[in-house]
């Protein structure tokens, strides 16, 4: 039901200075008014204060009349609220127990527990947000870098929606021309020529292709780049992780095989969340614990978007180095863009020592991979390593305040389908096929774009999107 009153704790689990309980729906004011009292007047129902004004109140248990907490309450009248419904927010002390007790009291007075994302779904259903803006709410909450946060905020403010609606408007204009000539032949509506219909279709295609051109980059800013640090034991993988994070996260000792499990942390690479995975050295071993660590290292490499392959520059290439390189090649890593292999950056570590590694031999193993020399002892080469990795994944592009990047895989899929249908309609025009064929593909493109904003989204799609939200949002 979408016309009942819902409630949930809106702040994260755990202890904090303040906790917020949100109530939304037609009975929100009635439910909360029955629970709050003025200090010193436990039997008097206070009037509802002016909208959007914080008032100091006590929350009373409806059964025992016990004071549950001292709170600030904001009564906010529709439609000027997050959900476009009457909303009440109770700001109490941020202890889990006190918040749960207040929530139980709210539910006992007639509200029901909100489902995940139900407040935002109501904002969408009531027209305050379109679907892409609603999805941006969670992107904004989950953003791990400032660049990701800026992109989510742009989407929340409707930058993507505006462009999608502009494309839909262009397509609808062409559909109207075609269908008017088909449906009303008795009105002598002239049949539009291909030369007249083609330019707006080409314009729509160009707009979609511009959005798709930045889609992979946008996905990186939203989801991040999984980067495994791979190499044989004791080449300095854990030291490299610590150096890139600028903190002592992984245990480092001179003893080979210190790392026996994967360690994952997030760094910021030009606004991209860089998910760094420190792995156990890939080496043959009879130790059952080390064997598990090596298996997890291989699994981390297989799931990675990129690899930092670390060698010890103070030693000649070992047979284990060659084995690790061969395994990565079999997993589909390389540096040849034409074969779409996942990128590898060669890290020659321990540059502070005398160098004994043969670079020519290393280049034979990885002829196209960039090579960066580092020393985690004195932080030499770390900036160059970050720059190299950024160039590989961004190809020299950087996000700015004017960028509109498609960060959502669902949106990318809808844009690709719209692009395919527009290409098909353009081909039908060029082949002088009946306009009905052109119209069918134009309508399919129009519908696909409508999935982005939610105008043509099914109930199943809405449920799938909003169930990933946190309760209270």
UniProtKB/TrEMBL annotation:
<dbReference type="GO" id="GO:0002098">
    <property type="term" value="P:tRNA wobble uridine modification"/>
</dbReference>
<comment type="subunit">
    <text>Homodimer. Heterotetramer of two MnmE and two MnmG subunits.</text>
</comment>
<keyword id="KW-0479">Metal-binding</keyword>
<comment type="similarity">
    <text>Belongs to the TRAFAC class TrmE-Era-EngA-EngB-Septin-like GTPase superfamily. TrmE GTPase family.</text>
</comment>
<feature type="binding site">
    <location>
        <position position="238"/>
    </location>
    <ligand>
        <name>Mg(2+)</name>
    </ligand>
</feature>
<dbReference type="GO" id="GO:0003924">
    <property type="term" value="F:GTPase activity"/>
</dbReference>
<keyword id="KW-0630">Potassium</keyword>
<dbReference type="InterPro" id="IPR027266">
    <property type="entry name" value="TrmE/GcvT-like"/>
</dbReference>
<dbReference type="InterPro" id="IPR005225">
    <property type="entry name" value="Small_GTP-bd"/>
</dbReference>
<feature type="binding site">
    <location>
        <position position="255"/>
    </location>
    <ligand>
        <name>K(+)</name>
    </ligand>
</feature>
<dbReference type="Pfam" id="PF12631">
    <property type="entry name" value="MnmE_helical"/>
</dbReference>
<feature type="binding site">
    <location>
        <begin position="234"/>
        <end position="239"/>
    </location>
    <ligand>
        <name>GTP</name>
    </ligand>
</feature>
<dbReference type="GO" id="GO:0005829">
    <property type="term" value="C:cytosol"/>
</dbReference>
<feature type="binding site">
    <location>
        <position position="259"/>
    </location>
    <ligand>
        <name>Mg(2+)</name>
    </ligand>
</feature>
<keyword id="KW-0378">Hydrolase</keyword>
<dbReference type="InterPro" id="IPR027368">
    <property type="entry name" value="MnmE_dom2"/>
</dbReference>
<feature type="binding site">
    <location>
        <begin position="278"/>
        <end position="281"/>
    </location>
    <ligand>
        <name>GTP</name>
    </ligand>
</feature>
<dbReference type="Pfam" id="PF01926">
    <property type="entry name" value="MMR_HSR1"/>
</dbReference>
<dbReference type="InterPro" id="IPR004520">
    <property type="entry name" value="GTPase_MnmE"/>
</dbReference>
<dbReference type="GO" id="GO:0042802">
    <property type="term" value="F:identical protein binding"/>
</dbReference>
<keyword id="KW-0819">tRNA processing</keyword>
<dbReference type="GO" id="GO:0030488">
    <property type="term" value="P:tRNA methylation"/>
</dbReference>
<feature type="binding site">
    <location>
        <position position="22"/>
    </location>
    <ligand>
        <name>(6S)-5-formyl-5,6,7,8-tetrahydrofolate</name>
    </ligand>
</feature>
<dbReference type="InterPro" id="IPR006073">
    <property type="entry name" value="GTP-bd"/>
</dbReference>
<dbReference type="GO" id="GO:0046872">
    <property type="term" value="F:metal ion binding"/>
</dbReference>
<feature type="binding site">
    <location>
        <position position="473"/>
    </location>
    <ligand>
        <name>(6S)-5-formyl-5,6,7,8-tetrahydrofolate</name>
    </ligand>
</feature>
<feature type="binding site">
    <location>
        <position position="258"/>
    </location>
    <ligand>
        <name>K(+)</name>
    </ligand>
</feature>
<comment type="function">
    <text>Exhibits a very high intrinsic GTPase hydrolysis rate. Involved in the addition of a carboxymethylaminomethyl (cmnm) group at the wobble position (U34) of certain tRNAs, forming tRNA-cmnm(5)s(2)U34.</text>
</comment>
<feature type="binding site">
    <location>
        <position position="89"/>
    </location>
    <ligand>
        <name>(6S)-5-formyl-5,6,7,8-tetrahydrofolate</name>
    </ligand>
</feature>
<keyword id="KW-0547">Nucleotide-binding</keyword>
<dbReference type="GO" id="GO:0005525">
    <property type="term" value="F:GTP binding"/>
</dbReference>
<feature type="binding site">
    <location>
        <position position="253"/>
    </location>
    <ligand>
        <name>K(+)</name>
    </ligand>
</feature>
<protein>
    <recommendedName>
        <fullName>tRNA modification GTPase MnmE</fullName>
        <ecNumber>3.6.-.-</ecNumber>
    </recommendedName>
</protein>
<feature type="binding site">
    <location>
        <position position="128"/>
    </location>
    <ligand>
        <name>(6S)-5-formyl-5,6,7,8-tetrahydrofolate</name>
    </ligand>
</feature>
<dbReference type="InterPro" id="IPR027417">
    <property type="entry name" value="P-loop_NTPase"/>
</dbReference>
<dbReference type="Pfam" id="PF10396">
    <property type="entry name" value="TrmE_N"/>
</dbReference>
<dbReference type="InterPro" id="IPR018948">
    <property type="entry name" value="GTP-bd_TrmE_N"/>
</dbReference>
<keyword id="KW-0963">Cytoplasm</keyword>
<dbReference type="InterPro" id="IPR031168">
    <property type="entry name" value="G_TrmE"/>
</dbReference>
<keyword id="KW-0342">GTP-binding</keyword>
<dbReference type="InterPro" id="IPR025867">
    <property type="entry name" value="MnmE_helical"/>
</dbReference>
<keyword id="KW-0460">Magnesium</keyword>
């Amino acid at each position: 039901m979408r016309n009942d009153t819902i409630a949930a704790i809106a702040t994260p689990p755990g202890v904090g200075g303040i906790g917020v309980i949100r109530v939304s729906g037609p009975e929100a004011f009635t439910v909360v008014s029955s629970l709050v009292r003025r200090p010193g007047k436990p039997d008097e129902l206070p009037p509802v204060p002016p909208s959007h004004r914080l008032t100091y109140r006590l929350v009373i248990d409806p059964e025992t009349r016990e004071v549950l907490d001292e709170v600030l309450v904001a009564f906010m009248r529709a439609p000027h609220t997050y959900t476009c419904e009457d909303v009440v927010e109770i700001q109490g002390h941020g202890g889990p127990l006190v918040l749960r007790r207040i929530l139980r009291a709210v539910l006992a007075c007639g509200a029901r527990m909100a489902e995940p994302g139900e407040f935002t779904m109501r904002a969408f259903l009531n027209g305050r947000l379109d679907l892409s803006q609603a999805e941006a709410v969670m992107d904004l909450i989950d953003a791990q870098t400032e660049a990701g946060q800026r992109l989510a905020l742009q989407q929340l403010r409707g930058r993507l929606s505006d462009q999608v609606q502009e494309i839909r408007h262009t397509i609808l204009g062409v559909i109207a021309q075609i269908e008017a000539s088909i449906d009303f032949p008795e009105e002598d509506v002239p049949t539009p020529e291909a030369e007249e219909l083609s330019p707006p279709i080409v314009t729509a295609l160009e707009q979609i292709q511009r959005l798709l051109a930045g889609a992979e980059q946008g996905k990186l800013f939203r989801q991040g780049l999984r980067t495994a640090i791979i190499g044989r034991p004791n080449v300095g993988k854990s030291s490299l992780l610590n150096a890139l994070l600028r903190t002592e996260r992984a245990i480092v000792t001179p003893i080979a095989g210190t790392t026996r499990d994967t360690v994952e942390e997030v760094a910021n690479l030009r606004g991209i969340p860089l998910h760094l995975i420190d792995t156990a050295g890939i080496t043959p071993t009879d130790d059952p614990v080390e064997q598990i660590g090596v298996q997890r290292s291989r699994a981390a490499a297989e799931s990675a978007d990129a690899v930092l392959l670390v060698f010890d520059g103070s030693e000649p290439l070992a047979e284990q180095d060659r084995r690790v390189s061969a395994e990565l090649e079999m997993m589909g890593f390389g540096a040849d863009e034409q074969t779409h292999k996942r990128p590898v950056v060669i890290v020659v570590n321990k540059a502070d020592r005398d160098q004994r590694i043969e670079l020519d031999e290393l280049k034979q193993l990885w002829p196209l991979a960039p090579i960066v020399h580092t020393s985690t002892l004195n932080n030499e080469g770390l900036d160059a390593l970050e720059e190299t990795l950024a160039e590989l994944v961004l190809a020299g592009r950087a996000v700015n305040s004017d960028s509109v990047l498609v960060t959502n895989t669902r949106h990318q899929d809808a844009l690709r389908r719209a692009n395919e249908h527009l290409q098909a309609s353009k081909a039908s025009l060029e082949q002088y096929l009946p306009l009905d064929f052109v119209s069918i593909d134009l309508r399919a493109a129009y519908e696909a774009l409508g999935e982005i904003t939610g105008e043509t989204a099914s109930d199943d799609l809405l449920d799938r999107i909003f169930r990933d939200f946190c309760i209270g949002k």
